[in-house]
Amino acid sequence: MGIESCTCPCGEVNLQKYKHPPSVVTDETARWSALLIGLLYGKQRYDYLKPIAAEERRIEEEEKKLREERERIYKQLSEANSDTILK
Fold this sequence. Notes:
The chain has a domain at 51-87. It is 69% helix and 0% strand. It contains one helix and no strands. The protein starts with 26 loop residues before the first helix and ends with a helix.
């Protein structure tokens, strides 16, 4: 249906016998396609991970405040205890 004679006597493909010439994907087309697919995947992954990272930062900030408060209380208690022991 598509090809009457696929090759000429010299062994080259005779494209004029095709009803629709075959599509040729060059190396450059493949590189650009891979780049665009990578960009799309990266954007999708970034959008997926962004809220998770924001939540982790919020929790870490809360834990940091609690840790600093504990350290402040511990320091006050240790200073109060050290004053009574040394005198």
